[in-house]
Write a structure and sequence with these properties.
0% strand; Protoheme IX farnesyltransferase; transmembrane helix; 13 helices; Tetracycline Repressor, domain 2; 296 residues; cell membrane; EC 2.5.1.141
């Protein structure tokens, strides 16, 4: 009898652990942490220990923001088939527990970054948490089609955290990296929103394709991709990076522009999915190219 009860308890524990990990949105975090790590090696020559502790601090901060998002959006998550099985709307984790968890993670992040890195990196991570939870999730997401444009600044904070952890400050080069992620976010997310337009419309979230239509969204994707291209070339023009970075930046920009123009012309789901998936690899490869350029 005791063995049977123990065997039943194990899956239960696994489910709880899995649910709390899910609240941190680990898949979303992978790219954020990559920009943190690569930025640290662009900024200097950090120790493995400093990189590890900054990654932990960044993960906890972004994870807290993700948990808050799960808490706050539980009503619209419950109304969408894609998100209805998430831990909070499904009832496996209570809203109160998710909220406490969110703030506990952020407090731990601040303490770890402050004690093991420096106060500036801890404050920047806190600013990213505040921007994602209050500015994006609470204020903009349900009120403005510009939600992802302004709210996307939260996702651009990790390079600043990484730079500050290594140098103790924020240099102009770090601000360029922030700007690149900031202007990358709209075409990346709008390509995804084209695929989920009906779900957003059902729950009243004013994403760009819901409010201004798919044609305008595709046009905005092209415009932001062109703007992003200019921004990615400026670090080379101003001498922050060299030829290796420039070659990658030009090649990636050409592919991104081609995909965005194809999406505008064909206006189909397949093109939207290709653009979205490419945008993930685009940012990852661009930041790795920065490290190659800085280290070689």
């Amino acid at each position: 009898m005791e063995a049977s009860q123990a065997s039943l308890a194990v899956p239960g524990v696994k489910q709880v652990v899995s649910d709390y990990v899910t609240l941190t949105k680990p898949k979303v975090q992978l790219l954020l942490l990559l920009t943190t790590i690569t930025t640290m090696y662009v900024a200097g020559d950090p120790s493995v220990g400093l990189v590890a502790i900054t990654v932990v601090g960044g993960f906890l901060s972004a994870g807290g923001a993700g948990a808050f998002n799960h808490f706050y959006d539980r009503d619209i998550d419950a109304a969408m088939p894609r998100t209805a099985s998430r831990p909070v709307p499904s009832g496996r984790i209570s809203p109160r527990a998710a909220l406490i968890y969110a703030f506990a993670l952020q407090i731990a992040s601040f303490a770890i970054l402050w004690s093991a890195a420096n106060l500036l990196s801890a404050c920047l991570a806190l600013a990213g948490f505040f921007w994602y939870t209050v500015v994006y999730t609470v204020w903009l997401k349900r009120r403005s089609p510009q939600n992802i444009v302004i709210g996307g600044a939260a996702g651009a904070v990790p390079p600043l955290v990484g730079w500050a952890a290594v140098t103790g400050g924020v240099a102009p080069a770090a601000l360029y990296l922030f700007a690149i992620v900031f202007y990358w976010t709209p075409p990346h997310f709008w390509a995804l929103s084209l695929l989920m337009k009906d779900e957003y419309a059902r729950v009243g979230v004013p994403m760009m394709p819901v409010v201004h239509g798919e044609a305008e969204t595709r046009r905005q994707i092209v415009l932001y991709t062109l703007l992003l291209t200019v921004l990615t070339l400026l670090p080379f023009v101003f001498g922050f990076f060299g030829v290796i970075y420039a070659v990658f930046a030009v090649g990636l920009a050409g592919a991104f522009i081609t995909l965005s123009l194809r999406l505008q012309r064909r206006a189909d789901r397949k093109s939207a999915l290709r653009t979205y998936l490419f945008s993930l690899g685009y940012l990852a490869v661009l930041f790795v190219a920065m490290v190659l350029d800085a280290q070689l």
